[in-house]
């Protein structure tokens, strides 16, 4: 299996924001070293903090991808070729190195930046060691510093972690060689290259502290920071003390916060689990009163207990099992590696071996539940690619995993025993499987058990800091698989067709940062992590969306994916804290006392998406009419809305749910399974049975049959496009420079900005690559495209500089738009002789499913009164947009509506002529005399995007072919439009 990187919209948006914020190149400088071949060209406003850029992206959304592509972009557009990536730790450095040097990343970026490569130079601690009595610079440092801009196809990148950057080796000047003909200090040699510095995890490089001072010593022309968290800065004292996030320009130039990441489905949802504990054990709680290098003081009630270094916690309470002592030191650790801090709570029962076994057992149950779904892919159509399922365990100590003399520790032995029992039960369940995919899963499980029982098992593996340099071949194979063989871990079979069964990974926090694998579906913590660690960071290793066995990344609309996170009872408030962290990450702070300017701005901004004419005055008038706010925008305490009494703030959220949608994580995105929150929505089977005959027809697979004229249309459109009558398609491409100047006019000053070509050389592409991408993106024959290109280039006086990325993009976009416009009616739906399952219907059993995940109905929820006609148990209602979806759901309907409701994603799977499938949003069954009418509604904003209009045309054509069966279809932009349409159908005014 090969991972396929795909360009995601939020990543493209981040790159666009960087391009917009980039200060441009300084072409007017009289600096005599401007053309120094060992250094970057000069950037405008260089060395100024206000020119630096901040990009905020949540964990798991691809910031490494964005800053890697940014380097290619800045090199292509402006000739910048020397970048330093500064990361906090060796593990993050290894993760970055692994991504940039991976074959799949190189392949992906080569499609956009032909013949350009990144030369990655990573400096490690041992690289400065003296050899043969001479103190020389590491080869990687020399390569970076002495590379010249004459090699136009190579980007030089220096990768360094903060410990290495702050080391004496970087600052000393007694080396036995020089760089750039005179520099004897590594940090000064780097500074001479005028680098662009990328800071990964900026909260670990706060301004004014030692590690940021190291950054400044490298004299960066420009700094671009990428992270989910940024450092804070404090000013004033006492009551005047103010703490705010330290952004270079006051705010990030791109902000993908945690709320949007979860609500938009850019990361997995999260389920929190923990084994319960008897009240007697749970109340047996000790608090850390003081933790010093040589002394630990615990308190319980009014009593205090003191331990010195090496003394056992069991001396205080026998329930502290596992021979745990106080190790002390600067990190104030227990012997199991747990760092203690003041006021930290310890429950002895969570240290017991049998309690950790219970967490393992529950984690394996979560693993196999996810694995069955990911392997079998129910309701995803026939032969949907499988998804490899991985689980990650964080444990107390390496000795519990790796025993003495190459043996197994007690934890590994317990894990094997529990896993063996669960495998045997699962194998027995699939013993009589008839379905081919179930038979395949049975074979996979058998291979897993066989490997587990062999001398050199390949089912689980561990990676610990102590493993570095181990001579044990089995250990090295495990470490290699975990750190470097991401694609192997994601694959089901090796090159010889044998099952790859390794999918359970163990670590002692070594994999907490830097390492990631998108197919981690379960994380189990067999130890608490302390109170100071970010909850989002802890779940971060499992947030990324998964890939299937073809390497395709599955978004949440394609496949609902969730992370199960197992913790101990002592962290049972984890879900609450995690939700708090996510909501705190929103830039808009909700005020329940008064309507603030930023709350007004957000509501107006969101309402304009469905009603472009909506204004702030309209909002305030509406709230005034509903008696929600005072003249000074304070919320009233007692407001009546819809027959209910509530606060003014709650009334605002009822009237404008958009406010909380963009400032609070949706409830089902983080679930505590031991709470009462249920995110499975049950179907009201008696209502769905009224649609049974209808669904037998909808479940029948349909094939798109194009008219015979389509191929001729494609060729005609292609010929017209290549003629380029408006001279807008074939264009020349040069790097751009942004020029700004301050001008004064009638006493006021303003900035005038212009764009100009950066240099005289044009950017071009290899012709073979150009044709290959063009053929792939248009489905046109290569021979036809080649002939059309030859004619076009001849017309352009044989100027091959027109063969570039801009021309390519123009050709692809123009052809596809014109071709799709021409063929949008040149096809028909042809029924096939088999049915397929969907998210709502099991075609094999010929019946509706019992329930669906709430998220396939909508991201958000709203309480409502029950309606016996609704297709699901309610409240709450699930919806994706407040207007018109929520308004449609909240309306009461007359007696002629027998059932109605929102359709889950992929409930029908109407084939699209431009690939993929689509499903309308709503269904209404309307009784009209002796027959029934089935009204299908697709909701869109008034200012709908081009793709939304295409979807409407596709759905309209599909249901028009089924009109004889009583179907009526309409795209609606408002609740009133739906209401009027229902009235007309009930009264027989429409045919």
From TrEMBL:
Record SUPFAM superfamilies: P-loop containing nucleoside triphosphate hydrolases (SSF52540)
UniProt-recorded Gene Ontology molecular function terms: ATP binding; DNA binding; type III site-specific deoxyribonuclease activity
Signal peptide feature range: none
Positions of the Helicase/UvrB N-terminal domain: 5-231
Alphabetized UniProt keyword annotations: Endonuclease, Hydrolase, Nuclease
Type III restriction enzyme C-terminal endonuclease domain location: 868-964
NCBIfam families hit by this protein: PRK15483.1 (NF012027)
Protein name in the entry: Type III restriction-modification system endonuclease
Organism: Limosilactobacillus reuteri (Lactobacillus reuteri)
């Amino acid at each position: 299996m090969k991972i396929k990187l795909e360009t995601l919209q939020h990543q493209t948006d981040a790159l666009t924001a960087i391009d917009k914020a980039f200060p441009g190149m300084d072409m007017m400088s009289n600096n005599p070293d401007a053309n120094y071949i060992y250094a970057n060209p000069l950037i405008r406003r260089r060395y100024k903090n206000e020119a630096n850029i901040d990009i905020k992206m949540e964990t798991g959304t691809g910031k490494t991808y964005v800053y890697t592509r940014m380097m290619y972009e800045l090199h292509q557009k402006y000739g910048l070729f020397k970048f330093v990536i500064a990361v906090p730790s060796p593990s993050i450095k290894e993760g970055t190195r692994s991504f940039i040097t991976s074959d799949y990343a190189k392949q992906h970026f080569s499609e956009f930046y032909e013949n350009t490569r990144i030369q990655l130079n990573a400096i490690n601690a041992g690289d400065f060691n003296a050899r043969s009595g001479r103190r020389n610079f590491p080869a990687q440092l020399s390569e970076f510093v002495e590379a010249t801009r004459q090699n136009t196809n190579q980007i030089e990148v220096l990768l360094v972690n903060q410990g290495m950057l702050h080391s004496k080796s970087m600052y000393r000047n007694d080396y036995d060689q020089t760089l750039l003909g005179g520099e004897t200090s590594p940090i000064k040699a780097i500074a001479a290259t005028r680098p662009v510095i990328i800071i990964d995890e900026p909260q670990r490089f706060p301004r004014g502290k030692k590690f940021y001072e190291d950054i400044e010593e490298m004299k960066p022309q420009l700094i671009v920071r990428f992270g989910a968290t940024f450092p804070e800065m404090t000013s004033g004292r006492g009551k005047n003390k103010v703490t705010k996030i330290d952004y270079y320009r006051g705010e990030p130039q791109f902000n993908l916060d945690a709320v949007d990441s979860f609500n938009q489905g850019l990361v997995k949802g999260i389920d929190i689990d923990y084994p319960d504990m008897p009240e007697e054990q749970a109340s047996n709680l000790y608090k850390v009163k003081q933790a010093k290098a040589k002394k630990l003081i615990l308190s319980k009630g009014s009593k205090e207990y003191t331990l010195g270094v090496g003394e056992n916690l069991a001396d205080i309470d026998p329930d502290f099992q596992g021979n745990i002592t106080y190790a002390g030191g600067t990190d104030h650790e227990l012997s199991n590696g747990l760092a203690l801090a003041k006021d930290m709570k310890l429950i002895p029962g969570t240290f017991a071996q049998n309690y950790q076994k219970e967490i393992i057992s529950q984690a394996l149950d979560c693993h196999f539940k996810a694995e069955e779904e990911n392997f079998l892919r129910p309701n995803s159509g026939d032969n949907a690619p499988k998804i490899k399922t991985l689980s990650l365990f964080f444990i107390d100590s390496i000795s519990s995993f790796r025993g003495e003399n190459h043996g197994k520790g007690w934890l590994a032995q317990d894990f094997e025993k529990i896993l063996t029992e669960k495998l045997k039960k699962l194998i027995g369940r699939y013993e009589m499987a008839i379905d081919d995919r179930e038979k395949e899963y049975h074979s996979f499980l058998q291979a897993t058990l066989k490997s587990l029982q062999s001398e050199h098992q390949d089912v689980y593996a561990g990676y610990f800091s102590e493993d570095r340099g181990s001579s044990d071949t089995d250990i090295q194979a495990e470490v290699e698989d975990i750190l470097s063989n991401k694609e192997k871990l994601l694959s089901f079979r090796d090159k010889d067709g044998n099952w790859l069964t390794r999918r359970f990974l163990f670590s002692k926090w070594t994999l907490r940062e830097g390492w990631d694998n998108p197919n981690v579906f379960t994380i189990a913590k067999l130890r608490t992590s302390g109170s100071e660690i970010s909850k989002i960071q802890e779940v971060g290793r499992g947030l990324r969306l998964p890939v299937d066995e073809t390497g395709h990344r599955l978004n949440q609309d394609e496949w609902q994916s969730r992370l199960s996170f197992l913790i101990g009872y002592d962290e049972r408030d984890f879900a609450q804290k995690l939700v708090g962290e996510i909501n705190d990450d929103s830039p808009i702070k909700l005020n329940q006392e008064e309507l603030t300017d930023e709350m007004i701005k957000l509501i107006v901004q969101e309402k304009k998406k469905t009603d472009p004419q909506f204004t702030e005055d309209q909002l305030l008038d509406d709230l005034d009419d509903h008696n929600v706010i005072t003249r000074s925008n304070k919320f009233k305490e007692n407001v009546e809305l819809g027959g209910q009494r509530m606060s003014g703030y709650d009334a605002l959220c009822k009237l404008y749910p958009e406010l909380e949608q963009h400032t609070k994580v949706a409830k089902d995105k983080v679930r505590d399974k031991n709470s009462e929150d249920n995110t499975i929505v049950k179907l009201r089977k008696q209502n769905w049975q009224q649609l049974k005959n209808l669904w037998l027809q909808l479940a029948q697979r349909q094939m798109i049959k194009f008219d015979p004229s389509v191929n001729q249309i494609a060729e005609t459109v292609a010929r017209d496009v290549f003629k380029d009558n408006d001279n807008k398609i074939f264009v020349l491409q040069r790097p751009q420079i942004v020029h700004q100047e301050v001008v004064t006019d009638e006493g006021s000053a303003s900035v005038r900005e212009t764009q100009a070509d950066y240099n005289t050389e044009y950017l071009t592409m290899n012709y073979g690559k150009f044709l290959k991408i063009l053929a792939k993106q248009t489905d046109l024959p290569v021979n036809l495209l080649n002939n059309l290109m030859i004619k076009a280039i001849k017309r352009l006086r044989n100027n091959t500089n027109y063969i570039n990325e801009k021309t390519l993009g123009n050709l692809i976009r123009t052809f596809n738009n014109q071709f799709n416009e021409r063929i949008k009616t040149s096809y028909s739906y042809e029924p096939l002789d088999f049915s397929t399952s969907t998210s709502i219907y099991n075609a094999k059993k010929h019946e509706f499913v019992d329930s669906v995940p709430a998220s396939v109905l909508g991201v958000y929820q709203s309480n409502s009164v029950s309606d016996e006609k609704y297709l699901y148990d309610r409240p709450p209602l699930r919806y994706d947009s407040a207007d018109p979806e929520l308004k449609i759901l909240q309306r009461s309907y007359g007696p002629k509506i027998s059932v109605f409701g929102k359709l889950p994603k992929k409930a029908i799977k109407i084939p699209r002529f431009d690939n993929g499938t689509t499903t309308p949003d709503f269904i209404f069954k309307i009784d009209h005399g002796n027959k029934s009418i089935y009204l299908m509604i697709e909701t869109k904003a008034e200012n709908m995007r081009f793709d939304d209009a295409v979807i409407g045309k596709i759905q309209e054509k599909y249901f028009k072919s089924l009109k004889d069966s009583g179907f009526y279809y309409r795209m609606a932009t408002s609740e009133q439009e739906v209401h009027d349409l229902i009235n007309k159908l009930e009264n027989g005014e429409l045919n």
